[in-house]
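Good day; I would like, with your permission, to put a structural problem before you. What I wish to show you is a protein chain and, alongside it, a tokenised description of its three-dimensional fold. Please examine both parts with care and let me know of anything in them that strikes you as inconsistent. Thank you for your consideration; the sequence and its tokens are set out here:

***
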Amino acid sequence: MFQIKRICCIGAGYVGGPTCSVIANMCPEIVVTVVDINESRIKAWNSDTLPIYEPGLKEVVESCRGRNLFFSTDIDSAIRDADLVFISVNTPTKTYGMGKGRAADLKFIEACARRIVEVSDGYKIVTEKSTVPVRAAESIRRIFDANTKPSLNLQVLSNPEFLAEGTAVKDLKEPDRVLIGGDETAEGQRAIRALCAVYEHWVPKSRIITTNTWSSELSKLAANAFLAQRISSINSISALCEATGADVEEVAKAIGMDHRIGKEFLKASIGFGGSCFQKDVLNLVYLCEALNLPEVASYWQQVIDMNEYQRRRFACRIIDCLFNTVTGKKIALLGFSFKKDTGDTRESSSIYISKYLLDEGAKLFIYDPKVVKEQIMHDLSQPSISEDNPERVSELVTVTSDPYEACQSAHALVICTEWDMFKELDYEKIYKKMLKPAFIFDGRRVLDHLHPQLQNIGFQIETIGKKVIATRMPFTPAAVCPRIPATEPPIKKAKV
């Protein structure tokens, strides 16, 4: 059996960095080199301040960096020396041309394939780690076949990642499953066995699944689509709960105890975010449309539409409760990453909540313990968010390093990320410094256990999937979202 002794990973991002760090940690006899064209990112991986935050990742990197784990910008040398090459580059949704807004942009995958075949010699296993459309491996193989050399033998595998940001290290060390897809030829099976041997250093054989390439690629898209679907499903029920007086947490617990359904991913919130869910569902929609399956495409599009609706509905509720105007009002927004225990803001619901409030002229004071000011301003200055008016962002948005500072003289406090620290803030201190009536909008249900205490302090509380009965004010504003198309933000009331 072919033995893998050296691994090269192209792409030092959220997938390549943690994955190869854990492989190096669990396989001390394998030399792992992570390469990237981004020099600043590689410098960060070689420093004490890693470019991404994941619990436990720094300890893993420091345990093997410089021993059998290396980070470099010398891509060609790493490819030439490797027995196995992981492709872990970005595959964003296209923003132009055919498939705009749905299809995955594979230009980075193609560039990697061409570079690999150009500098390689001998036998190598090339493995897709990035989330790619079904039959992307065939495209890579066609590039290899069209540029082959007599001395070159490249085998293409699919090995999708199933990481959840915030628990990536745990997911890598204790995976539910490892999926490896390849050709059903003798050479393809040989490559599969070689990659299996790497994972078998720490993963039980029973958790390593081997399939053909196409099944592996589709399994990744389907897994993320199913998870996103569950979130949109419980969020749809949260709207019904608010209209009827039910509590979505109680409903989720009741249905989650059914072993056929299970309790995971039944947490109502302001919607899912991150780099994978929306991108992969849209990719699936586009794939179905391209294969003339419009009913299937429409089904999965609803998952995205419901996610957008939940974000807009929450923003409308904030505006409604603040006496139907937020123009010029200071609003504290706590949490900007798409989930706790990560600094990743990609497709974060916080971005869209901010957009809708900025469209109304609100002044946002934003705090997040792990997201830097530059990232927040960059995200909010994107043309689709700032409406080609980045000056508006600099005028209306302030990023603070202290949650208490963010809340001072604010009309409302909006929780957009479920950071544990938000459960432990001194809300009596916050209330004293806020304008009255002081509102809390809990978009993540992190303060449920504090509702009686917060109401005694004087807060007016609004949360997802539950009517919180007001005890201090006889007037309870309606939380009815105007009926507007799923693709449109709330109607503007003022321009600043």
